[in-house]
């Protein structure tokens, strides 16, 4: 079974409920949805530092 965080977010974004997702994808569990949301939150909150090249 492979179900990506992106696939799950694409279901949640337009308003699909957890219960609807679990009914349509019985191999998923509530904990999978919560873990995906937590992962997405961490990714969205990431800070990236980009080094600037200094002219010599």
Strand content: under 5%
Described by strand count, sense and barrel closure, the largest sheet is: none
The overall strand count is: 0
The helix count comes to 3
Could you say how many structural domains there are in total? 1
Oligomer: single chain
Uncertain ranges: none
Please give the radius of gyration in angstroms.
17 Å
Give the averaged pLDDT, no decimals: 89
- Write the H/E string, N to C: HHH
Helix content: 40-55%
From the N-terminal CA to the C-terminal CA, the straight-line distance is 53 Å
Q: Quickly give the structural class.
A: mainly alpha
What is the approximate shape? elongated
Topology:
Layout: H1 5-12, H2 18-24, H3 30-44
Write up what this structure looks like.
The chain is mainly α. The protein has one domain. It is built from 3 helices and no strands. The termini are far apart. The model has no long low-confidence stretch (mean pLDDT 89). This is DUF433 domain-containing protein. It comes from Spirosoma endophyticum.
Keywords:
3 helices, 56 residues, mainly alpha, 0% strand
Summarize the structure.
The protein has 56 residues and is mainly alpha-helical. Helices cover 54% and strands 0% of the residues.
